[in-house]
Specification:
The chain is of the alpha/beta class. The protein has a single domain, classed as Alpha-Beta Barrel (TIM Barrel). About 40% of the residues lie in helices and about 15% in strands. The protein contains twelve helices and eight strands. Strands 1-2-3-4-5-6-7-8 form an eight-stranded parallel β-barrel, surrounded by five helices. α3 links the parallel β3 and β4. The radius of gyration is 17 Å and the shape is globular. It starts with 5 loop residues before the first strand and ends with a helix. Bound molecules: phosphoenolpyruvate. Phosphoenolpyruvate binds next to β8.
C-alpha cells in the first residue's frame, strides 16, 4: 500500500504577519518541481488569509492549528471549520500536545473537534503522544491506544480513513530529544495494529502516520527511511525556510 509522505509545518503562535508571508513564499519555492510528497503549513489563525493568498494555485496545503466542533454560535475564542475552509485551509491539526497539556483538552473534546472537521470536509491530523512519566511507567501502549480509540470514537471506516495520525511523544516536542527511528517504528506499527483491530487491515495500511518531536534536517532521512513513518509534523525546524526545505527534500 503506498502512502504519500506528508511534511507538515506547525508554526504555532510564532512569526509576525510579514514573516509568515515570507516563509510561505519560501515554502512555495522549496516545493517547485517536488513530486511524490505533500507539504502543509499551519500558521496562526490570523495569518491564514494572507498565507492562503501566497499558496493559492500551488500544491502547498494549508491547515488550522485547531477548530471548534460547531459550525457557528456562542463559542467565544473559537474558530469554526467553515471559517477555516472559507479562508483557504483544507486540513486541521487536532489534539496537539500543547492543546492537551497547556489547555487541558481531553480525548472526548478532541473527538468532538475531529468529527466536526470531518463533517466540514477538512482533513484532521490527530496528534497522540505519551509523557515521559507515562513512558517510564511502561504505560505507553495503553496511553496511545486510549488516545487513538477515544479520538476516533464514533467514526465509521470511511471517516477513519480520512484521518492522518501524528505520533508526537510529549518529551520530544521542542526539547531537541527525538524518538529514535526504532522507537518510532515500534509505536507506528502498534498504532496500525490498533487500527486493524478496531477497523480493518486495509484501512490500517492506508492511514498515514506522521512522526513529530524535534524533527530536523539531521534526523529526517533516518526517520523517513522507516517504512511505517509516513511523514513528519515539524515545529521549530519548520520556522526556518532552509531547515524546512531540507526536511521537505528528505532522501527517499
Ligand atoms: C510540534 O509542535 O508538533 C513539534 C513536533 O514541535 P518540534 O518539532 O519543535 O519538536
Amino acid at each position: 500500500m503506498s502512502r504519500t509522505p506528508l511534511l507538515a509545518g506547525n508554526w504555532k503562535m510564532n512569526l509576525a504577519l510579514d514573516e509568515a508571508v515570507q516563509l510561505a513564499a519560501a515554502v512555495v519555492e522549496s516545493c517547485r518541481g517536488l513530486a511524490g510528497r505533500e507539504v502543509m503549513v499551519a500558521p496562526a489563525f490570523l495569518h491564514i488569509p494572507a498565507v492562503a493568498r501566497v499558496l493559492q494555485g500551488t500544491s502547498v496545503l494549508l491547515a488550522g492549528q485547531n477548530m471548534c466542533w460547531e459550525k457557528r454560535g456562542a463559542f467565544t475564542g473559537e474558530v469554526s471549520g467553515p471559517m477555516l475552509k472559507e479562508a483557504g485551509a483544507s486540513m486541521v491539526i487536532l489534539g496537539h500536545s500543547e492543546r492537551r497539556h497547556v489547555f487541558g483538552e481531553d480525548d472526548e473534546l478532541i473527538n468532538r473537534r475531529l468529527r466536526g472537521a470531518l463533517a466540514c470536509d477538512l482533513t484532521p491530523i490527530l496528534c497522540l503522544g505519551e509523557t515521559l512519566e507515562e513512558r517510564e511507567a511502561d504505560q505507553i501502549f495503553e496511553v496511545l491506544e486510549g488516545q487513538l480509540l477515544r479520538g476516533l470514537g464514533g467514526l465509521d471506516p470511511e471517516e477513519a480513513n480520512r484521518v492522518v495520525l501524528a505520533y508526537e511523544p510529549v518529551w520530544a516536542i521542542g526539547t531537541g530529544r527525538t524518538a529514535g527511528p526504532e522507537q518510532a517504528r515500534e509505536v507506528h506499527a502498534f498504532l496500525r495494529s490498533v487500527l486493524a483491530d478496531r477497523f480493518e487491515k486495509t484501512l490500517a495500511e492506508s492511514v498515514r502516520i506522521l512522526y513529530g518531536g524535534s524533527v530536523n534536517p539531521e534526523n529526517i532521512d533516518s526517520l523517513m527511511a522507516e517504512p511505517d513513518i509516513d511523514g513528519a509534523l515539524v515545529g521549530g525546524a519548520a520556522l526556518k525556510s532552509e531547515s524546512f526545505d531540507r526536511i521537505i527534500h528528505f532522501a527517499s
